[in-house]
Structures are given as structure tokens and as C-alpha cells.
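Many introductory courses stop at the sequence. We go one step further.
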Amino acid sequence: MDDGLLDLGPLAETITVRGKPLEVFGISVDGLCYLIKNFPEFKMVMQQKASEITPEKLFETGPRIAAMIIAIGLTDASRYDDLKGWERHIILQAKKVKALGIMDQLNLLAAIFKLTLPDGVGPFVLSLNSLTATIRGGSTEPGTRSPEASGASLQMVDPNVIPTNRRLNS
């Protein structure tokens, strides 16, 4: 009998780090939302505003974001019944990730990104933009006209982020 989604296991592969096999998972919507909620700089990258991140902020938060991406990618979210338990686990996992060498971290990131974005970042961004346009009532198909705007918008606003006029490469 076909149980649909129940027949699918998590999207995963095993890689070896320092002789130890580790199961690596693709990042789900929960993981993406966690990163956006907890890292304003990650949110800016998702909004295609990376040029607004100062080098100082990038050096401060980049390693923490990378450690958290790896921690999320090393955690099978389907094993947790509640979000709080999952969050506690990935926070503990991220502390362990920080002790790994840079090559181990890069290898883990590569495996996580391969599972999460098998077609690359470009198609992901196009899909995300298409979804946003659909929510707004527009279209992303070439040669089509979007209906008149309703005045509603979907914005990711964080009151803790203070915009600056400094550019990354200035």
C-alpha cells in the first residue's frame, strides 16, 4: 500500500568527518525560518540586500551562521515533536560545530547545500520569488500581466535591524 509522504524518509546522505560517518540532511522550511528569525544578516541575504551588510558584521556573524547551518543540517528535524526541543538540540550542536576545523566545516556545508539546493541558489531564488508573487497576487511568467496590486505586501521586517548606508565593498 502506498502511504505517500509516509513512505519517504528524510533527505539525507552520509559523509565521513575525521573517520566518523555523519548523516547530513537538507534544510527544511523550519531551518530556513529559524535562520531568518535569528540572524538579521541571513535575512538580508535572502532579501538580496547582502551589499548592505558591513564587513564588521559579516565577520562577527558569518561564523555563527555557518555553524548554525551545519547544526541544522546535522539534525533530523523529523525526530522532534516540538520546535523548542529541536531548537535546543541545534543550539547544542552548533557549539560542537565551532570546534571543527575549517575543511570539516566546508565539507559539511557543501553536503548540506547539495541536499538543500540540488539545482543551485538561482532556481531556489526564482521559486521563492514566484511564491512571493503568487501570495501577492502577481505572476512571474514572462509576457503576462499581473492584476492590479491589492495594497497588501509580504515583508520580513525586524525592528532590531538598523539600516545603514554603508556598502560591503565600499
